[in-house]
Structure formats: structure tokens, C-alpha cells
Amino acid sequence: QCYEEPLPVVLHSIRDNAALRAVDAMGLQELEAVRTILRGGSVIDWKRLNFRDVADVDHFLKLNLLDVANTQDERRLRGMLSQSVEYLRTTFGYRVAAPVAQPADIREVFLIASGVVRPKFRRIARIVAKCMHVVHHLEARELLFRTAIREADLCQVVDQRVMGEAKRMRELGFPIIEFSGNVKARSSLITKLLAKRESVAAQIFDRVRYRIITERADQIISVLEHLTRTLFPWNYTVPGQTHNSLVQFRDQIAKHPNRDELVRDLQIPLEAEDYKAPQNEFTGKGYRALNFVVDLPVRIDDFMRPGDEQIAEELGRVVFSLVEFQLVDQTAARANEAGDSSHDAYKRRQLGKVLRRLSRGLVVPKKKGAGKAPQKG
Q1: Would you say 289 and 246 are in contact if contact means Cβ atoms under 8 Å apart?
Q2: For residues 359 and 356, what is the distance between their CA atoms, to the nearest angstrom?
Q3: Full-model pTM
Q4: Residue 255: is it exposed, middle or buried by C-beta count within 10 angstroms (0-12/13-18/19+)?
């Protein structure tokens, strides 16, 4: 039988608190989300979800631009669930229990995966939720390919959302010195593609970029956690695209009053923090910042033509736009503009490598202006 009892709601939840939250006030759910971004990890590697009640699930879904009160979105979620269950049954022979495969309320899947209700089905619900995450991502990509939506229109919607939240944070008195954004110039895109052998156009994650400078380094985590509640869903942080030389999770959790309990319940052992991801080869040794990339969901209802309705019924109304964020405190920001860490030094190293690749077998210009065409040998 489907689960028919009322789903749990915690009326005093802190999820809607607009104030900047200190690390020692964060719970396991918030810390896990932050850690995933700091590590450049993937939600696919998680052992469980940490939703506490139905309002938590609603908030999470709305960050993904899905609302169970909307019949089209609810149908979309059911479709994701159905595909995920079918995949697990046909590919691996999983026996997906009815409370997970056919819940009375689609939000039950997330609460079961968190062990809040029907805990004996937690493991299979967790696996189903992971598959739903992938199905949603795949079909959102297909939706973007099958509709005539311009990248410029997506960028405009993204910018309105991000800068709208920036304005709100300033009005709330958040300790932000700068919150700015830009779109990478075409010349910079060409240089980036030429600088690395493995780069292709589809892998340029920082076309649209936002920079946030806080007053102090100890405010970085709090600002990041706030953004995961108000702007982007942590589950669509792009794995492997975090470059973090500024904030270490181990140092942050060491200050928490419930440290021992939290460390015990972490998805991935704390020892995993000893691994240091390789940094950008052109970055100066003294450069310190937190850079990460998110697949920001975008509703395209306003951009769809009459003929797109059938596609939307099949694939939904949400696509993704890659956005890079950089968080840094003002002391580190000033240091990053000096000497070996400066942007000018970074560009010189990058352009030097591009010129060497382009000029093999030719005479490389001796003058400092690397923009001149190589002379024939």
C-alpha cells in the first residue's frame, strides 16, 4: 500500500531564515551541501539524503524550479520516477517496493531516502532518487537541444536571478564588498580552447561568471550556504570543477559544537579532505579563492512556441545553464591582484602556452605583444 499518513512538517525549521548563518548553527544537511561544493563532489556518491520534513523537500524542489502544486511539474516528477524505477528493474533486476515506485505523494520518495518515513525502504529510495537526478539532467539537456531557445536569452534570465539575489543580500546587510558578473569574451574562449588539449567548446564552464567578495574569510562558508538555500540547488554543482585554495571543510567542522556527531554521520569520511585536487596550471602559487560551477536550472515557459507544447509534456519546462561562481574575501582578493597571482600574470602564462602550441615549427615573435601573428620560417 502507498504511504497515506500525513507527511512530517517542522514548523520551526530554519530553512527560510534570511540571516547569515554561522557554521556552528548549521546542521548535517547544510554542511553536506557546502562540503559537496568545496570538494567538487557529486550527489551520486551520497549514502542517503538528509531531508527533515516535507517543507524541506518542497524547498529543495523549488530551488530546482519544480513545484508539486503545479500539475505539470508533478506529472514531470512522476515521469522521472517511473523512468528511474523501470531502469533499475530492467537493468539490474532491482525489486523497487510500491511505496517508493508508486507513492501517494511524490515527496515521499525523498523522505524515505532520508529515513524519515518507511526507513526499511531507505536504500532503494536513495538509489531511485539518484536516478531521478540523472534523468532530469539528461532530459533537460535534450529539451534545450530540441527548442529554439537562444543562449543570450538564458543568460539574461540567469543574470536577473543572480543579481536579484545579490540585491536582496545587500538589502539584508550581508557582509559583501562586491557581487558582480560578466560573460567571458570571445577572444578569451578561443584562448582557453587553445590552451588545453582536453578542452572542447562544450566543456567551457565559465562563460557566465559571478564574483563575490566578503569582508572576512570566515564569512565565506556562511555566504555559500545561504546561496544553496536561495539561488542554486547544491545537487547540480558540476563535479570535478571546484578549485578551492581558500576554505577547508576540515577546519570549519572542527569549530562545530556537534563535531563528533557530525563527523560520524558524514556521507564521505573526513579523511577524504586530505586529497588535494589539481589546480589550474596557469594559476599563481599564492592565488587563493573558491571557484565552482553549477548547472543553474532555468524555466523556459516564456520562451516556448506553440509547437513546443508536446516536447514540454515529454521533457518538462526546465533547462540548465552553466554558471561559475568565485568567492573570496577582500584580503585574499587584494593579494590575488599582486605579482605572480595577478590576472595579468595568469594571462601571460596562458597566452605563452597558446603561442607555443600555435607556433611549433615557426618563428615565435620576440616582442612582448603576443597578439602578433607568427612569422613564417
Answers
A1: yes
A2: 5
A3: 0.81
A4: exposed
